[in-house]
């Protein structure tokens, strides 16, 4: 299945809002670290329901662009957003439809590892960022978070499984400085009592703690030279 087919289905079945609810637990902490200023132009890669741009508009950004490969995701996001300064585009991470140096910041939550050529996507991010612009790249699927590795079995789109070190190396290879890397725990998802396991796809309570509390979301921050 293509990105379009896979994620159009997710959008049609309401998974876009479900992801928003779950990802907000850590995305809000990532957004709080972003050095956005009034009037900034920000791109959200793999925007899903578009919640990140609505939150950033409340912080004063001037223009938000949500790019997604699934037209139904973009349609839904438009329907949830009553703001002329936020636009949703259908496109692919391989080729970002922006001029060189056009953007102040790029954000991505739980989407980057679907890129078919992730280093090229990083080069594209670097190209569209103005000097000093930042890329806040947040993923829950990464090598150190071992309980997430099985996710690939449930989705037809190829996922890139990088370690923390591989993320830093790839950012540098694409010409971005690495300003920060951190694992942001999800302290809100409820973890049931040990007697209730297996549940929610986790064999043991320890495995669920590892996924949410120990690892959570890996944030890598790149800065364009
Ligand atoms: C797991 S969802 C995350 C959505 C949102 N960022 C969130 O936090 O809820 C991944 C999104 O990335 C989009 N996506 C995946 N691969 C893509 C690609 N190569 N180009 C553009 N969008 C892509 C999907 O359509 C989907 O909406």
What does this structure look like?
There is one protein chain. By secondary structure, this protein is of the alpha/beta class. The protein has one domain (3-223): Vaccinia Virus protein VP39 (Rossmann fold, 3-Layer(aba) Sandwich). Helices cover 35% and strands 22% of the residues. It has helices spanning 3-12, 15-33, 51-58, 71-80, 118-128, 164-173, 205-215, and strands at 41-45, 63-68, 86-90, 103-109, 129-139, 177-184, 217-223. Strands 3-2-1-4-5-7-6 form a seven-stranded mixed β-sheet, sandwiched between helices. β4, α5 and β5 form a beta-alpha-beta unit. It is globular. The model has no long low-confidence stretch (mean pLDDT 97). The chain binds S-adenosylmethionine. S-adenosylmethionine binds next to α1 and α2. Residues 43-137 form the Methyltransferase type domain. One of its GO terms (molecular function) is S-adenosylmethionine-dependent methyltransferase activity. Pfam families: Methyltransf_11.
Rg, rounded, reads: 17 Å
Oligomer: single chain
**Poorly predicted regions:** none
Bound molecules: S-adenosylmethionine
**Mass-distribution shape:** globular
Order of helices and strands: HHEHEHEEHEHEHE
Number of strands: 7
Please describe the biggest sheet, giving its number of strands, its sense, and whether it closes into a barrel: 7 strands, mixed
Question: Biggest sheet, strands in spatial order?
Answer: 3-2-1-4-5-7-6
Number of helices: 7
The third-level CATH topology is Rossmann fold
Q: How much strand content do the residues show?
A: 15-25%
Distance between the termini: 37 Å
